[in-house]
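Report of the visiting student (M.T.), summer placement. My assignment was to run the structure pipeline on a short list of targets and document each run. The first record concerns Lipoprotein.
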Amino acid sequence: MKKTFLVLSILSLFACQKKTETKEIKAKDSVTTKKDTVKTDKVAKTPAVQLNIVDFKPDEIPAEMLKGSTHPYDMEGESIMELVPSMKDFIKGTPLNVVYIDLSLKKAFIKADGKIVALKETGEDQYSNNEYKLSFTSKTPEKLPQEIEVVTYAYEGKITIIRNSDQSTVVRDYFAAGL
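After the run finished, the structure tokens were exported:
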């Protein structure tokens, strides 16, 4: 009886060792397969598309601005600032605008990635929504050309527009003046 018990225990021990060996082999195969899929995921990533800021054309005035100003003393759109690319464009009367800023609505309008986007005022010279941020720096030009000396205000500076999803940034020059 002792011999049969000894033989049965050796057989069961041998059987248990074989089961653990097969489990380890299966585990190694699944890890190898998983590593292969991870490598293919890394290769499949695509680079982000560059932020595209386009000037407004004369007939592309944002519809929200066409409804009229909400400021009670604004007779002829005086609360709207049109930021043009440069002082030369302003003198020539080039009707392309980089940004519209409606001071009564407290909004800025840009044409980004092929669509007109409204941004709410979030601070001094800062506007944003869930997709884009706009900020600008301004200074008064030291000397104005004779053609536009009659203006009551004039600013020039840089506009910075950032797309929130990938932090793609565009920096542009601008000029604004008015009576």
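The two ends are 115 Å apart (CA to CA). The helical segments are 2-43, 63-66, 87-92. I thank the supervising group for their guidance throughout the placement.
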